[in-house]
Amino acid sequence: MLDTPPVLTIRRRFERPSPDVLAAFARAESAQVADAQGGGGALDYRIRALPEIPFSGTIAGPALTCETGPADVLAAVAALDVARPGDVLLIATGGWTGTASIGDLFAGSARNAGLAAIVTDGLVRDVDGLARAGVPVFSAGLTPASPAASGPGTVGLPVVVGGRPIDAGDIVVCDRTGIVVVPRAAIESTLAALGLVLALETAEADRVAKGQIVSETMRELLASDRVSHVD
Predict the structure, then answer these.
(1) Is residue 191 part of a domain?
(2) pTM of the predicted structure, to 2 decimals
């Protein structure tokens, strides 16, 4: 006879990045963090910030992962008991669009837990209540349909959200442009590359502010034999 499977599997202990590291990523934009990873790390473009919830700048926090499966919220609720202030909750639903993954009461509890943001590849509901809760929410859309709370699900284990594998403790960088994930193993190298990206962008922005139309690098290319002119 087969054993009855657990309704929840939870990993509570995982390493979170230091506040200094998180602050360094929060000073950048999601696009710059993607550039620092060779243009990668972004979640599916359909996962967007709800415009009704005001926030500015960049949110950077440790990933708190959960997998609910379709039409269920049990693992997401359990994740609130694992959450620490500043975490970004990632809710993997497998892209389910038949019901919402969370609503306004959940968002209120998430605010009480100190979550920095909620990210799901599914839908959400109660948009006015979500706005009152005030926690930035990134989702694939809206629906009034409600989920169940029966499981099974996982908390703190690897998931896939928006086509990107994510583990608890990875860094999640969110802004109005989108969401980029930095795996724990790549944090140090990405941070080093990010410094170069920011320096190059600052220098280029200064040249544009002074009237630049085409960069010197582009002018050199246009003048080289790598370009064929037909007129």
Answers:
(1) no
(2) 0.93
